[in-house]
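Troubleshooting entry. The earlier prediction with heme C gave an output that would not parse, so I re-checked the input for stray whitespace and re-submitted. Clean input:
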Amino acid sequence: MKSKNSKQKLFAAFVGTMLVALQSCLFIHGCSLPAQSTDSELSKQRLYSSKCASCHRLIGPQEHTANVWREYVYKYGEAIPVQQKYALIEYLEHHSEKTP
Ligand code: HEC
């Protein structure tokens, strides 16, 4: 009886350990998930700071409205490939000053 009890305890300890391991696994994985989903967001942000902050300061996306951003991206982004231009517009529009 005593040995069974300690086996149960051992089992409980084992399950507990596994749960902790699973949790930390989920935690680590969970941490990487939002990073992944914002990855394109992050790369757009990087694209913006690499393409649009060489001549002047990095202008905050919230400083202009979506329409204005579109104009400026076309004005200053002539040499930027279309795909990247769209990514930039998407990023800037998403964070742009909201028109009331
Ligand atoms: C070749 C240099 C150069 C690059 C690269 C450049 N700009 Fe500019 N930008 C300027 C100059 C010069 C001005 C000031 C004259 C004007 O307002 O047109 C300016 C002004 C601006 C303004 C208005 C001023 C302000 O403070 O709000 C915005 C918005 C802007 N740029 C956005 C962009 C964006 C978006 C990109 C990337 C697609 C970009 N710029 C890349 C030279 C550049």
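This one parsed fine. The chain has two domains: 1-33, 39-95.
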